Amino acid sequence: MPVMDTLLDALDFPHAAPPEGGVMFLVAPGLWWLRMPLPFRLDHINLWLAQDGDHLAAIDTGIAMSKTKKLWEQLFAGDFAGRTLSKIVVTHMHPDHVGLAGWLNERSGAPLHMSLGEYHSTQNTMRGFGDNEDVSRRRFYLANGIPESGLDAFARHRGGFKQVVSELPPDYVRIMEGKPLFIGGRRWEIIAGFGHSPEHCSLYCAELGVLIAGDQVLPKITTNVSVWPIEPMANALQWFLDSIEKFRALPADTLVLPSHGLPFRGLHRRLDQLVAHHDERLDVLRAACATQDGKHGVELTPVLFPGKVLDEHQFVFALGETLAHLHCLEGRGQAERLVGKDGVHRFRTIGPAPTNVELHDVDDPEMV
């Protein structure tokens, strides 16, 4: 039986099903679970509401679309019972998490709380990354094996972010690791994570024994960890793996509240599974790169996603994940980067390559 299946069987899911969209469901004293829709194959995000005096603090917001706004309005008119938002805490910059932060700020007056990296990355993505963005994107994709004739497909992905993210307020409250956030008298420790996003913030409350994990630890799917044109040499996977090791310090019976899937216990087992999953993928790439001339990212993407029919959107993330694994191998001294006369970056295995490597089924690549 694959490692993933064995460990998932060992996880404890205290709630068999999620609440209906926009309905508050109590998961711990003074802490509620919300489920909001997403217009993707992954069709939901979990949000959290924490009692904060006479009002509520929201942790993440949902994507900016009319259906989600309508559900929030129903909450204000119904389950909120006259309360409003006191704080808007956003774990990271991806649209399903930050999308309605600006709208909720304007609607309620509640201040936005984000890390420095996530706030400014959201603002930069909304406005583009400067006059040279097209140049850097072109250089990045050509260097990783996209032919000149295929570049237009990547250009089509520009501008989508601001269609599903409301304009952020011009000021915010900065949160950071080592500086606790107090909500309703309870102390929440900030645990910073890297690799999935610039400065992802998970929140842990020892009093409740609860970890609001964001996208750092998900129960049944793996978080997207990619390399992007703005940071073409990033060792994103190693950053991510180093980040999740911080959760080992938390008690084994911690209730994990993930952004996707069901709340669960079994944090340490899930961390073991995530590490094993990425080790398996790294071994597969080491075996595939054991050639004299090495291989580039586009050639290796089908190796990590075998049998997957990827649309343009998915291929962007699949290539990004492939590069994250290749950069991790390079950073560990298990592969070397060869830059050819054509300017393409290829990777060649250093030392003996793994044999008889089998890649178990993997998730379809999405920005999760």
Chart the SSEs and their pairings.
Layout (H helix, E strand, L loop, with lengths): L2 H8 L14 E4 L2 E7 L6 E9 L2 E5 L6 H12 L7 E5 L5 H4 L2 H8 L3 E3 L1 H12 L5 H11 L7 H5 L17 E2 L6 E3 L2 E8 L6 E6 L4 E5 L21 H9 L10 E4 L8 H22 L8 H8 L7 H20 L3 E5 L5 E5 L19
Parallel strand pairs: 4-5, 5-6, 6-7, 11-12
Antiparallel strand pairs: 1-2, 2-3, 3-4, 8-9, 9-10, 10-11, 13-14
Helix pairs in contact: 1-9, 9-11, 10-11
Please explain how this structure is put together:
With 368 residues, the chain is an alpha/beta fold. The chain has two domains: 3-128 and 159-268, 4-Layer Sandwich (Metallo-beta-lactamase, Chain A), CATH 3.60.15.10; 276-349, Arc Repressor Mutant, subunit A (Orthogonal Bundle). It is 32% helix and 19% strand. It contains eleven helices and 14 strands. The strands form three sheets. Strands 1-2-3-4-5-6-7 form a seven-stranded mixed beta sheet. A five-stranded mixed beta sheet has the order 8-9-10-11-12. Strands 13-14 form a two-stranded antiparallel sheet. β10 (200-205) and β11 (210-214) form a beta hairpin. The protein is globular, with a radius of gyration of 21 Å.
Task: Assign the structural class, choosing from mainly alpha, mainly beta, alpha/beta, alpha+beta, or little secondary structure.
Answer: alpha/beta
CATH superfamily of the largest domain: Ribonuclease Z/Hydroxyacylglutathione hydrolase-like
Write down the overall geometry. Answer: globular
How do the strands line up in the largest sheet?
Answer: 1-2-3-4-5-6-7
Element order, helices and strands?
A: HEEEEHEHHEHHHEEEEEHEHHHEE
The total domain count is: 2
Helix count equals 11
Helicity range: 25-40%
Count of extended strands = 14
**What's the CATH class of the largest domain, please?**
Alpha Beta
Average pLDDT for all residues: 93
Secondary-structure arrangement, i.e. CATH architecture of the largest domain: 4-Layer Sandwich
